[in-house]
Amino acid sequence: MQNLTMAPTLTTQRLVLRGPERDDLAEFTRFMTSAPSMVAQGETGTAEQAWFGFLIGTGHWQWHGFGFFTVVEQQTGQPVGRVGLLKHSNWPDVELAWHLFEGAEGKGFATEAAMAVKTWARDDLGLDQLHSYIDVGNNRSQAVAKRLGAVTDGTRAPHEPDAEVWVHSK
After folding, report:
1. Best exposed site among 71, 77, 101, 145 by fewest CB in 10 Å?
2. What pTM does this model have?
3. Is 165 exposed, middle or buried (0-12, 13-18, 19+ CB in 10 A)?
4. How far is CA 32 from CA 42, 45, 117, 168, in A?
5. 29 and 50 in contact (C-beta within 8 Å)?
6. Contact, 155 vs 165, CB < 8 A?
7. What is the CA radius of gyration of the chain?
8. pLDDT tens, position by position, for the chain (170 residues)?
């Protein structure tokens, strides 16, 4: 497969985090258009919107030198989600974000992958402060943030009023 970015490959005990590849689009599209977690948050989109989102993700790597990694379970070789760093033009800070594909939730993959990204961001990119913008009703993502050592004071993200700002420790 051809990596579409200059993303490094990170490995954990159970996971490989790599840059996006063309073949990842199908699973990403399924996630964006029909994943129960996206439906529950009212954030599903069309296949065309998923395609644009996927391309934006690859461009993000080119612009910033970081972005979403595709998270692959070592044992099966299957993509289980995306975890990475985001900094859109109207965002005040770099976000550490995670999205797991259907069937991958509840196995600790988000925490394991996010910890690897957090370490890479600090050690290789020199990013000492990361934030996560988490919808107030997204208890599962809040639990991941807590396991990563993040805290919130309830402040809302200026670019996303339904999301609280979670600040990660170094």
Report:
1. 77
2. 0.89
3. buried
4. 11, 6, 22, 26
5. yes
6. yes
7. 15
8. 677 788 999 999 999 999 999 898 888 888 777 666 655 666 667 878 878 888 888 899 999 999 999 999 999 999 999 999 999 888 889 999 998 988 889 999 999 999 999 999 999 999 989 999 999 989 999 999 999 999 999 999 888 889 999 999 87
Q: What tokens does 128 get?
A: 């000492």
* Token pair belonging to 63: 């612009």
Name the one residue in this structure whose structure tokens are 């529950």: 40
Matching residue, tokens 């910033």: 64
* Ordered DSSP codes for 3-22: BSS-PPPEE-SSEEEE--BT
Nearest CA-CA partner of 134 in 155, 117, 149, 114: 155
Helix, strand or coil, per DSSP, at residue 160: strand
User: Do 117 and 12 contact (CB within 8 A), yes or no?
Assistant: no
Structural tokens at position 140: 């599962």
